[in-house]
Amino acid sequence: MSVLNIYLLRHGELVQTGVLSGRSDIALSDKGQQQMLARCKTLPQISQCFSSPLLRCRAFAQDYCQQYGIPLQLDNALQEMDFGDWDGKTYQALWQWAPPQAVPESPKNPATLGDFWQDPWRCSPPNGETMADFSQRVTGFWRYLLAQLVLQPSANTLVVSHGGVIRYILATVLGLPLPGVNHMTTLDVPYGALIHLQVSIDEQGHAWPKLML
């Protein structure tokens, strides 16, 4: 049995705070850059890195990988959820916003921010991504990564991504109910958070990930 490591790194603080960043390509603040650098000082030698292509993840991943000669792959599946019309808006404005006609029963109809947090599987951001689509792409990446580690074991993999993506991967590893909202309300992944997952590959080629505290 071989034992491998995956490190999930959330981007640091952004230059624009108090907004729902989503797909908005907002840069890291100086503090955000330092948050990520500080976390990465604790890492062992990384053998490969995957990153969201959004600037707040990509810029750091490119600099870090170039410095240490690490192969880097940008993957669209690691982007934050697309919040559609809500992207880039302040939370204050979003809590006050109401659609002309909210119909929570359909994921294609506009919902309020409160509707979304209470039941994201039925209520989607206007002109944004449904939770089902988000789930499908993040699950697809996670399965791809585990399959790759089975075929081509890589001792230490770094994944640079966003809060929503990392929470969903953690929910999968921890076996939280999905569809559900527990991963959104009970898992705190602050700016610059670094999470260690250990993956055991058994003799049958099955991957068994677990959270390391």
UniProtKB/TrEMBL annotation:
Gene3D superfamilies reported in the protein's UniProt record: Phosphoglycerate mutase-like (3.40.50.1240)
SMART domains per the UniProt record, alphabetical: PGAM
GO cellular component: cytoplasm
Classification via InterPro entries: His_Pase_superF_clade-1, His_PPase_superfam, PGM_Phosphatase
SUPFAM superfamilies, per the entry: Phosphoglycerate mutase-like
Site location (Transition state stabilizer): 162
Signal peptide span: none
CDD domains, A to Z: HP_PGM_like
GO-annotated molecular function: phosphatase activity
Protein's recorded name: Alpha-ribazole phosphatase
